[in-house]
UniProtKB/TrEMBL annotation:
Its EC number is 4.2.1.3. Pfam families: Aconitase (PF00330), Aconitase_C (PF00694). This is Aconitate hydratase. Keywords: 4Fe-4S, Iron, Iron-sulfur, Lyase, Metal-binding, RNA-binding, Tricarboxylic acid cycle. Catalyzes the isomerization of citrate to isocitrate via cis-aconitate.
Amino acid sequence: MAHNLHDTLKEFDSGAGTGKYYSLPQLGRSLGVDVSRLPVSIRIVLESVLRNYDDKKVSEEHIRQLANWAPTAKRVDEIPFVVARVVLQDFTGVPLLADIAAMRGVANRMGRNPKAIEPLVPVDLVVDHSVQIDYFRREDALDLNMKLEFSRNKERYQFMKWGMQAFDTFKVVPPGIGIVHQVNLEYLARGVHKKAGEDGTVYYPDSLVGTDSHTTMINGIGVVGWGVGGIEAEAGMLGQPVYFLTPDVVGVELQGALREGVTATDLVLTITEMLRREKVVGKFVEFFGEGTASLAVPDRATIGNMAPEYGATMGFFPVDEKTIDYFHGTGRTQEEIDAFERYFKAQEMFGVPLAGQIDYTKTLTLDLSTVAPSLAGPKRPQDRIEIGNVKQTFKDLFSKPVAENGFAKKAAQLDETYRTTDGVALRNGDVLIAAITSCTNTSNPSVLLAAGLLAKKAVERGLNVAPHIKTSLAPGSRIVTDYLTATGLLPYLEKLGFAVAAYGCTTCIGNAGDLTPELNEAIVSNDVVASAVLSGNRNFEARIHPNIRANFLASPPLVVAYAIAGNITRDLMTEPVGRGSDGRDVFLGDIWPSSQEVHDLLKFALNAETFRTNYSKLTREGDLWSKIEGAEGQVYDWPTSTYIAEPPFFDGFQMTPAAALAPVRAARPLGIFGDSVTTDHISPAGSIKETSPAGVYLKEHGVQKADFNSYGSRRGNHEVMMRGTFANVRIKNLMIPPKADGTRVEGGLTIHQPSGDEMSIYDAAMRYIAAGTPTVVFGGEEYGTGSSRDWAAKGTSLLGVKAVIARSFERIHRSNLVGMGVLPLQFKEADSVQSLGINGDETFDIEGIDGDVRPQQEVTLVIHRASGDVQRVPVLLRIDTPIEVDYYKHGGILPYVLRSLLA
């Protein structure tokens, strides 16, 4: 085989001379396999496995297994995937930097060279999650929001500056440039990489993991990459392959074309609904067919971006002429483009496959002409509603029980009007936040130009947006402002309140900023179900704003339309959007732009010179970033800070892990949760409540409420984050008895046992830890859905939780739990908390993990009831791969990697 592997290194003309590449067609000939039938995404992973063959981490068997990928084989083989680079956003990047800084501290204390801890692949951190919409609807909003951002986050930014000088391969894209995924798409992704070696210059395809779920946006340009937790990303950047089970690949054939008036957002909401129903969790999704080939790259990127919402590991699009056009339009060099195109042609991977050319696990079909204008919500991105049904759906959900996704209100209350103390009339369904935001849509010129055109027509008809509605435009890059200015559309958006307020991830991540005190008071005291409409990808409970309960995802033009309409119960298909200055009703059809109008302006959006100019000057002398001063030296000295603290994950570190794994005995439940508990529920990113354990901690350390900032911004401090674990204001612990009206108590509370005292989950966890009592957490279906939030696992671990037992897990959170030394256990068949009658006063043993742990083995959950009865329940150990067994035995992925680097 070694001889055959050597034969796979071939020459090709890169356009700038002769280059080398590891030829997949030649590998296929050597192995007698027709690699042209493999999904393109599998071939790109196969190239990495082949190129990184070292007979240690990557073996000959790994290459053979993946080359012989079969559509319907049982998935038991593990792939060691060495990625070309790693991308971070700052919420997840800062704790990752803190972890590797702590590793350097350990190395230093052990008398080793701290430089042994160094990223082995390029790492780019894009600061995009820290800006909030404090100021809006004013010309200086952008400037004021950025100044506030820098004053709040100075300690974090100083830490990043230290990281830039301490680590050779660590770079930072500073605040105010854009959202990580759009910057990645427009600038960081280079198509192919090259590396000089003994055998000449070897070219290989771009690939990455990122510490944000929506890293999959990069799949739109044929790059294999997905979101992982920061825990897994650390291992990847410190030389470990990213290990994952060989995936199923679901092929989605797109046919036909979108109808007039239908946007890429409508398409992606339709795909999200369809694929979530198909249960593609943990699978690759690959798009093919003539309809796919017809889509522009920004539309492909929008679909790829939403892969976490439909549950897939990726939503992949092969490289073709449209990809090359996009690279030209975004200012890549001719040399790069030539190498990119010639490489993929040499690998016989250029072009979108047509029906019958690839063997997929399963093939689905979507006729683009069936897609209709839609919103999604009010609580989940997969709950799509055609625009004509939005009014009725909201009315139905208003009085439906919470168990049916409703708001459990009396139907008669729907039309009641309340008054704020400053005179604003407030009704259920009122739109209080309208935001053009998020990488999903602000990377797509067609929908942003459509929003601008709709705003122009609306302003010309005399329509406006009520002054109490919080409107904002937060583009994913400065390019957006350039083309909205060049087309003359920005002034019309500004007239309706959509002035540029930030360049970053704002409303979609929970950085909408606050409403007025008067609105907050009226909502809370009257229990109003208010609405937000945003062009984002996430609308989970309490994510957008703690007091706004109905959150709808929509295309940018629909965001503007609903801001004008002012209430989600206005049926935009049959009722007017508003009344014009001439006193006449204006309907959505009157102001909706045609496809041709949008198309005529697209030439302004892909101007190579604009892209080159923009990204050539990421920082300027005298700007806010240049004034930040970081510490010097190779080892961080951890000054006192409520933002950055040395993480405790290496306390008592020894080069040899504990000899034996111990069974869990007499554990108490810390929480019992229902279905679709998200990582937002487990570890919120948004505002910190003053009375919460985290709020109390900050006040004790001299931080005023106005300076709390967000949980996301404080992820570098474990003291804040462990107090914030399970502290979402909307989380419902089923251990707490329901209220008199049957509704569930919300917030991070639990019942401590055996005392029976009700208290915060954090306080109960500390009491259990002090008593030496292990704890467990129970969940339902899709536990840990949502963002790739490593703190959801880190916080769970620091609270002393030994196992999470659920009906099913979302992919990233499951692996993060293993990475932090927490057991993910899955109920078998029809078993659940409900069927087993678990109520929270029991104790639990977990047997079968103290011997030779095997992936996906059966272990036993022993339930000791208060009555004295004992029940033994088989559960599935969701440690899925051999490497995860090693991680668990080492106490988690971080000690495992540190031992590997120092060995």
